[in-house]
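Throughout our pipeline, every protein is held as a single compact record rather than as scattered files. Nothing more is needed to write down the fold, since each code stands for a local backbone conformation. The record that follows is passed on verbatim for readers who wish to inspect the format.
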Amino acid sequence: MTIKDLAAIMSEDTTYTILIGADQEVVIGKEDKALMEALGNVLVDHAMVNTANRLCIYPCMDLRRAAI
């Protein structure tokens, strides 16, 4: 499942914290269309609910070294 696939089934007001490397993250909200487009095809290893409308996503790869 990709981040874009996951976003398609989540509530519209969900924000996504994507871990891009050790202690580094990027937060994507509904207004961040360009970030979702850039990171949308990244495969999700696992995800967990952080708060009511926030999902923490662990990608399958270290995105600091990825060419997106």
Observations:
- The mean pLDDT is 88.
- The longest helix spans residues 3-9.
- Strands lie at 15-21, 24-28, 44-51, 54-59.
